[in-house]
Amino acid sequence: MKNRLRKSLLLLSSLLTLSAGLLVVAWPLWPALATTELRPALPVSGGPALPIQPGPEKPQVEVVFVLDSTSSMSGLIDAAKQNIWSIATTLASAQPEPEFRLGLVTFRDKGDRYITRVKDLTQDIDQLYLSLMETRAEGGGDMPEHVNQALYDAVHNVSWSQNPEAYQVIFLVGDAPAHMDYDDDVPFTETLKVAQSKGIVVNAIQAGQQSVTREQFQQIAALSQGEFFQVSQSGDSVAIHTPYDTSIAELSAQLDQARLYYGDAEKKARQKEKIAASDKLSEEASVVARVRRALYNATTAGGSNYANEQELLEDLERGKVALADVPEAELPEPFQALSPAQRADKVAELSAKRQSLKAELESLSRQRSDFIREQLEDASADLSLEAKIFAALKSQSGEKGLHLDTLVY
């Protein structure tokens, strides 16, 4: 009995000694261990998708173009159709990477087919570009135009964010001054006071050489801490054709066709509108515009324009959804008749194909950039509409902590 008791006491003593030793070793690590979060394991195939942790908030950039669409502006409207994608890609390449939206106000005058048309701020640049494509230079004939109403709509009838840190800017582009003789009008001087109170900068770009327009546009820019520029009536847009353009445009069309949308009937109806818009762009836009769109879509910001809402492969890749969680009726039609294993195989096949297309597009884009860099050495690129816009964007966004490197053609 005594021997058993002695052995038990010896065992207990050994355990106490060992525990004390472990405590001495572990004590320095305790603060780190106590504050370390346990991270859940990644879901197995078919399991629920993990919620994406929000990253740091991106800076916001909101740009509205206010464009005179009367007959005398036909050349400059064509230039705008060419360079809107360059501006978008340049903004998407800013550091730190911003979240940005573009809007459009086209205007004419009383007695024309319309006075103003407003396309609200959006990340869906395809839809905005379609509005620009459908803009025809018509009407006008007399010198003043309804600049007052256009600026009023741009300031009051566009969904500007309420973020005081956002870079918010309007580019007024036209060749005629404002009518200042309409009794039911709000003069631009009053509108610009509201713009300034909201932190919206207004830049004025004059097409042509009319002195009365120059004086008024200079006043508009000065009243809103903006900049004034002049361009030729054609806009002097730089549209360099390269040996890589056709291939890039074709790859872009293939990527458009590779999208797979899912969701209920209402979402699928909106997705059909997105597909119709990109199809129209492929059919009607110039090769240069299609190439520049492809470059924009390849950026992180451009991904929302490319995929829009509830694109299956994008959402699977980002962990927004698990394939097994999508109801069969909400799957893309080609997936509905497949077994779960066949669906997984199809996703893997289509994802690999898309990555291959993107890699080929990236390679051609680099070669195109090198080609353009050589061509621009002999071009008067600084006189173009897009170069003037870029100069203002670079200077003004820099005050908000954004850095724009070069204009992407």
Tell me briefly what this model is.
The chain has 409 residues and is of the alpha/beta class. It is built from 15 helices and six strands. The protein is globular, with a radius of gyration of 29 Å.
How is the main sheet built? 6 strands, mixed
- Report the end-to-end length measured between terminal Cα atoms: 94 Å
Give average pLDDT, whole number: 85
**Helix count from the secondary structure assignment:** 15
List the helices and strands and how they pair.
Blueprint lengths: L1 H25 L3 H6 L24 E9 L5 H19 L6 E9 L8 E7 L2 H9 L13 H10 L10 E8 L13 H11 L1 E8 L3 H13 L4 E4 L13 H13 L7 H20 L2 H11 L4 H6 L4 H6 L15 H4 L3 H37 L8 H14 L11
Parallel strand pairs: 1-2, 1-4, 4-5, 5-6
Antiparallel strand pairs: 2-3
Helix pairs in contact: 3-4, 3-10, 3-15, 4-9, 5-6, 8-9, 8-10, 8-14
Describe the structure.
The chain folds into 2 domains: 60-238 and 379-398, Rossmann fold, CATH 3.40.50.410; 245-376, no CATH class. Helices cover 50% and strands 11% of the residues. It is globular. β2 (99-107) and β3 (116-122) form a beta hairpin. It contains 15 helices and 6 strands. With 409 residues, it is of the alpha/beta class. It has a 6-stranded mixed beta sheet, sandwiched between helices. The model is unreliable at 1-53 (pLDDT under 50). The chain starts with a helix and ends in an 11-residue tail after the last helix.
Q: Which features would summarize this protein structure in a list?
A:
409 residues, 15 helices, disordered N terminus, alpha/beta, six-stranded mixed sheet
